[in-house]
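Researcher: Checking consistency across runs. Here is tRNA-specific 2-thiouridylase MnmA again:
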Amino acid sequence: MRVVAAMSGGVDSAVAAGRMLDAGHEVVGVHLALSQSAATLRESARGCCTIEDAGDARRVADVLGIPFYVWDMAARFKHDVMEDFVAEYSAGRTPNPCLRCNEKIKFSALLDKAVALGFDAVATGHYAQVVERADGGRELHRAVDSAKDQSYVLGVLDADQLARAFFPLGDTTKPDIRAEAKERGFYVASKPDSHDICFIANGDTKGWLTSRLGEQPGEIVDAASGEVVGSHQGAYAYTVGQRRGLGLDRSHMDGDPRYVVGVDAASNRVMIGTSDLLGVNAIRGDHARWCGPPPEGVVEVGAQVRAHGEEVPAQAWASGDDVEVRLSGRIRGVAPGQSVVLYDGTRVVGSASIAKSWLER
């Protein structure tokens, strides 16, 4: 097969490209330029897509002896990921940009361009596994390394995208991947992993949002009493479950911690309360994406609402683009805009964007 190996400049995508070549595929390395003003050097483990990263990817391609190209997708990334990120926070929702990037960039824009150029598939360094069924269909499963499993952020892939996706690292642990990279002579073998939001290199999400949305002063309100207990400079900077950075005067409160329990974008209010107001056991999701046929009727699943969160037994049923999920127990800090990803054992069933969550007694 002719395969585009998406090469970020990190160790995982480097080994993924090498493994695809070892498997006998015709491999071309592609680095995605996602920033319209890329930094020259990486300053920390945060961020990505610097000129230094592109150079690291090119050096790996040279070691492997494969062609290498840089594809400019900065405008598409800005529209589909960064502007979406701002719009979601502005609406009082908490998005996961990694899911959006996988859905809109790596397995849409990149895959579409690759297919248009005559390639058969895209390979990435994600930690997940693709299992082929006897009937030729493909399933997405969790990685062997549970600490690095990235199946959650791939839950947005549909059956057609999954049919053209390879994840060569899913059967290996991260320490073994680094050891393999060293054996292959890759300069990036000990390069730190990227983490957090790639386009906010300093990790200051609040500051980044404020620079784009401006200060929007509003009230912090006690959800139980309706009393105004504080003020903020922008409700968009808060998310359900948040405890730190509330800036409350605790002198008139009891000793229980306070958390964000709701963000009302329309009134620019942040609602706070005690932990008992955070627990939910019912979720309604929209924008459903299925990694195969949609479930029929009520099905038993595992539900996960964060990239490294705990999977909770649940029942789910689909209705058009919507999904209803009933959890076996309460979970805390479920925010609109997050994604709920559904599992059947290790298999990813699909995902949806959380529109509402509540406690059903």
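Researcher: Does this match what you'd expect to see?
Model: One thing to look at in this run: The CA atoms of residues 291 and 348 lie 7 Å apart.
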